[in-house]
């Protein structure tokens, strides 16, 4: 309770971002109250080396001091640090929706596997500065962390203490993704998570609680408006232009969300004969294939029928192993290849990139946000070469971007999301964005809505509000949610 004392006698509630503060990765937002410490999201840092190295640094709070975690969705930059948090002493419950629970398990297992494989390769070929190279966590660590997962329903209030409860509302973005309303000592705090776009390919429009005193809000595209383009036509144009050159189309994609969107568009384009119906399409991501099955398991989270969902996967060849990757690369004739990861930070997509990036006949199609320091960002920046596993490759392939497939709301969408509150929040705290995007959105929020907005700094504590002694008592935990093993 001492962390909540002001001047020795006043109790208070604090907000502290342990990640995704002036950057788009590593989301971890700590809500510290006199009786309970809650972490909203628990993600890995990705991108430039200085960010990735933060994954190895101890948090400013002990894992054992955190009582519970709320997970807004399953992307690695929101869930990828969970096994490390458990390794560092966390023993509370981790609350999430059903789809998020299934997808997070897939993503964490895949992340651990890749880390183990990368460490093995680094030790074999000697390109790591650390001897020996080791993974941040292992598959065994993931197995341990899964014991603390607790799936809950949307639009239902769950009590953590007599003074603290939460409720999920669908946020679009990916299946299972939610914003979360935290009721805290009579104040309403909304954590946006990642806000999806209206009129998504497969997902319903984002919604949120009707009222909020404080909003902790993502700002990925805070300084950008998405182009008013038809993503179906844009993809068809890219495919057909590349086919004229007898090249291949490589689409780096996030295994959860964007892969399924693109597969659905390809299905429609073939059905409408906008691209050749016999064009081979490969999905080289076992995790993306497994994630696609989640759509069938949770049909209430998508906007198409179960039948259409099944049909859209019927024309896709799914590759399960590395030898299959080699066969796809060596297969003659043009093809579309979808492979993770979406920002080209690792995974099988790098094997394709090695073979395709230097050939001008080929097209590398970027369809999602690219963080600073990633290979995807380097391609968009028109760099002349790219480094993969210690080797440099000239960039001769055509690099295209389809902005209309982004999973994040743009500035206009973010402002509309804020406008949708029935009562104007007293304060907005901006997280999960690069500094330029956050500054632009901060000014826009002030000018258009008249709301004070603050850009959170890494690890800096923000005082949300004082609470009185009557509000703070009693401090017993309610334990309204059963522990799931």
Polypeptide structure, described:
This protein has helices at 49-52, 76-79, 82-87, 98-125, 139-146, 231-244, 258-271, 286-297, 306-312, 322-330, 349-356, 375-380, 411-419, 435-449, 469-472, and strands spanning 5-6, 10-19, 28-32, 37-40, 68-70, 93-96, 149-151, 158-161, 164-170, 178-184, 187-191, 214-218, 249-252, 281-284, 317-318, 336-339, 363-366, 385-388, 391-394, 398-401, 427-431, 452-455, 461-467. The chain starts with a strand and ends in a 13-residue tail after the last helix. β4 (37-40), α1 (49-52) and β5 (68-70) form a beta-alpha-beta unit. It is globular. α4 packs antiparallel against α5 and α6 (231-244) crosses α7 (258-271). The chain is an alpha/beta fold. The strands form four sheets. Strands 1, 2, 3, 4, 5, 6, 7 and 23 form an eight-stranded mixed β-sheet that branches. Mean pLDDT is 90; it is low at 472-485.
Summarize the structure.
With 485 residues, this protein is of the alpha/beta class. It has helices at residues 49-52, 76-79, 82-87, 98-125, 139-146, 231-244, 258-271, 286-297, 306-312, 322-330, 349-356, 375-380, 411-419, 435-449, 469-472; strands at 5-6, 10-19, 28-32, 37-40, 68-70, 93-96, 149-151, 158-161, 164-170, 178-184, 187-191, 214-218, 249-252, 281-284, 317-318, 336-339, 363-366, 385-388, 391-394, 398-401, 427-431, 452-455, 461-467.
């Amino acid at each position: 309770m001492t962390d909540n004392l002001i001047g020795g006698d006043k109790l208070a509630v604090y907000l502290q971002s342990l990640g995704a503060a002036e950057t788009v990765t590593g989301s971890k937002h700590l809500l510290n109250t006199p009786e309970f410490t809650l972490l909203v999201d628990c993600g890995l840092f990705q991108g430039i080396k200085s960010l990735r190295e933060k994954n190895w640094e101890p948090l400013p709070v002990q894992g054992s001091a955190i009582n519970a975690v709320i997970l807004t969705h399953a992307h690695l930059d929101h869930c990828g640090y969970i096994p490390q948090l458990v390794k560092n002493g966390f023993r509370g419950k981790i609350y999430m929706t059903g789809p998020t629970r299934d997808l997070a398990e897939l993503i964490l297992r895949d992340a651990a596997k890749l880390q183990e494989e990368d460490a093995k390769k680094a030790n074999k070929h000697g390109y790591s500065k650390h001897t020996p190279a080791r993974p941040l966590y292992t598959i065994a660590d993931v197995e341990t962390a899964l014991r603390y997962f607790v799936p809950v329903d949307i639009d239902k209030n769950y009590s953590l203490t007599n003074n603290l409860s939460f409720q999920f509302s669908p946020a679009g973005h990916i299946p299972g993704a939610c914003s979360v309303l935290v009721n805290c000592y009579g104040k309403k705090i909304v954590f946006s998570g990642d806000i999806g776009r209206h009129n998504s390919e497969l997902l319903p429009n984002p919604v949120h609680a009707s009222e909020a005193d404080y909003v902790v809000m993502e700002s990925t595209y805070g300084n950008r408006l998405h182009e008013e383009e038809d993503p179906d036509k844009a993809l068809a144009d890219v495919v057909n232009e590349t086919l004229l050159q007898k090249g291949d189309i490589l689409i780096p994609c996030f295994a959860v969300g964007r892969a399924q969107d693109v597969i659905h568009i390809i299905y429609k384009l073939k059905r409408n004969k906008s691209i050749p119906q016999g064009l081979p399409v490969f999905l080289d991501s076992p995790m993306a294939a497994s994630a696609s099955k989640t759509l069938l398991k949770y049909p209430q989270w998508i906007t198409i029928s179960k039948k259409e969902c099944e049909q859209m996967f019927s024309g896709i060849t799914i590759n399960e192993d590395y030898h299959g990757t080699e066969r796809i690369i060596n297969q003659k004739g043009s093809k579309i290849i979808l492979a993770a990861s979406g920002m080209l930070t690792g995974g099988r997509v790098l094997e394709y990139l090695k073979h395709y990036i230097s050939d001008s006949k080929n097209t590398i199609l970027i369809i999602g946000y690219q963080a600073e320091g990633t290979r995807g960002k380097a391609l968009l920046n028109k760099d002349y070469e790219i480094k993969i596993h210690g080797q440099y490759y000239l960039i001769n392939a055509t690099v295209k971007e389809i902005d209309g497939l982004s999973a994040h709301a743009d500035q206009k969408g973010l402002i509309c999301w804020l406008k949708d509150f029935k009562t104007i929040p007293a304060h907005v705290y901006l997280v999960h964005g690069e500094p330029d995007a956050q500054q632009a959105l901060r000014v826009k929020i002030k000018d258009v809505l008249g709301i004070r907005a603050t850009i959170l700094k890494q690890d800096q504590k923000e005082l949300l509000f004082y609470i009185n002694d009557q509000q703070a008592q009693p401090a017993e935990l309610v334990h309204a949610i059963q522990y799931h093993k």
